[in-house]
Design goal:
The complex is a heterodimer. By secondary structure, chain A is mostly helical. Chain A is built from 14 helices and no strands. Chain A is 77% helix and 0% strand. Chain B has 3 helices and 11 strands. In chain B, strands 1, 3, 5, 7, 8, 9 and 11 form a 7-stranded antiparallel β-sheet that branches. A 4-stranded antiparallel β-sheet of chain B has the order 2-10-4-6, with no helix packed on it. Chain B is rod-shaped. The N and C termini of chain B lie far apart (69 Å). The chains are: A mainly alpha, B alpha+beta. Chains A and B meet through helix 6, helix 8 and helix 9 of A and helix 1 and helix 2 of B.
Amino acid sequence: MAGSGSTTELVILSLGLSGLIGGSFLWFTFRDKKTNIVMRMNLLIMSLLFLINFTIFALYTFQELPFFEGTEEILDPLILYLNMATFMQFGLLFLLFPSPIFTERKPMLLAMCSLPAISISILLTSKLFFEHWETVGFLIQQAIFYGLFSLIAIRWYILHRTSDSAVKRNHAIAAVLLMFGLVGSVLTRWPVLFSLGGGDLYMQGFGGFIFPDLSTSDFLFLFHHALELIPILGMFVVLITEIMVPREKRDMVVLLLSLFFFLFGLVNVMVVKFIDINTDFRILWHQFAAAGTFGLIRPVLFVYLAIKFNLVDLSKKSIRNKVRLIAVLLATVWASSLFEIIQAFLPVPQILSAAIIGVILSFGIGWEQKIFDGIATISEDDYLSSPKEIFEEPDLFRVVMVTVVFTLLLAMYGLIQGGETVV
Amino acid sequence: MVKQLFNPLLKSAEESGERNQFIFIGILVAVILIDFTILIIGDYSIDINDNLDNTDEWEITFSNMSLTSNSEVLISDNNEEVVTFEIPSNLSDDGWMVQEIHILITYGETSLGDFDCDTVSAEFDHDEETGVSSVSEQSSGESSDCTEIQMNKAWRYYVDGVYDNISKLEAENILEMEDVGIDVYAYIRVNTDSTIPNNDNDENISVDFTMTLQKVESITRV
């Protein structure tokens, strides 16, 4: 079986994938001025999310290098705080995509500004009352931004999935695809429902966090668990609805995705229940199948969202060609990452996997035009509605700078604080 | 025209939309309550505190095991021999650790007609894995009158009982001893003493190793 070297390779591939998508989306946001400003804002926030992920993966890569040996006390809290910064992007996307929840500029800006305020408030409150306040603050934020905000996506879905209007149905589909992309790591552990997976499955999500304060640990655990049940239940709502919906309204992507998470969760719980935690297979499963699989799904989903729902104006030929080129690059990196995961479990020689990737791509390039045109149809039925006059052009730059400053502040605080080592 | 604060698409105009939302919330609340019940008081409830690092009282029982070995070595005058005892490393899979190393060296005067026992000196050391300090140590000895030489090193001996104010993780790792998988080396030197010139050039030395191992047998929350 593969060892730590393969983990490093997968991290580097994920780093490349995140950087490519983040950079591309950022470029399209500022280059393509024809698309609705709200759609561009969504694209911008997605790009910032991937760029922060890029930074996190870079830090993971540094940890593997001999030069950075023994720097866990510096890098681990830095990674923790950067992950907290990504929660902001989650919240913003749930508020703005598929359509902003407010129709007026001021309430929308207020809602967006409240997210970092919520994050800071939680951290400060945790510091006042809990000994391991960074961990507590992180988990409370994770529960809120993963769980509570998923209610927005689920509402979109419940309200409009079976609508006769194609545009309204688009909102439902786009919302759940966003939810799958953002909180898929929770969905892979869906058997925590009714404690089917036992303690080990719960701990797969916590990643080894500890709660030394007896009076708070049970409460925090239950709070976190309660909120993570929201997207899990949402997944079942999606799965059942997609099976029951009339054929002409069925969306194969959503159906297949919900089936994938369902089946993956089943396999995951069997691995957790029947394979000892100290075996190589179990360690690899956690590193590759759990973390790696999720790391592949989010990039693909977001690119699909951007193309399918016209977050980028594909009517312009120059932009369309660039999007196609980036899609091909992404497919290459993605296929390499997938084979990296496969090689972790099966003894496939690297040269064989490289050859298979080459064959797939050579066939794919021939069909890539057809596949791309199939997704990137410029039909008005594929648009998402968005209230006008919510944002102005300078808001894009402002969001970038506020995100950069906020992320740097968190990162600097993480570096100074030191903090506990996060497993 | 009065502008609406919230996106009109999020406000359902149909009764079925809100009804479905309420059904979802109702199922969610029910599932959360069922899950809490299973987690806290169910037959197969997860003892959350077992997975988290909370301090409590734990009743801990221990098991003991001895490993012995005997070697006979013939050591010639003014020479030193090393006798090694290897503690199998696979014992760590079951949680065994080294609580005591005891080495007994015995010899007699084997030269015919000689009434002067040889001088035997010995010392021992071992590989160190954990670096935990011992509670007692006698790492060398000497005898000139055929009396036995005893050397030993002991770490804290744990007795069954209730240990409080520790987490489950600490209870599982309570033993502060040396790891198994180490090699123990006994260095034995002989200086022959003889009442008859050139009668005694070597001596048979018997080396008995006794390793006492301990492990945590069970942990129960009090």
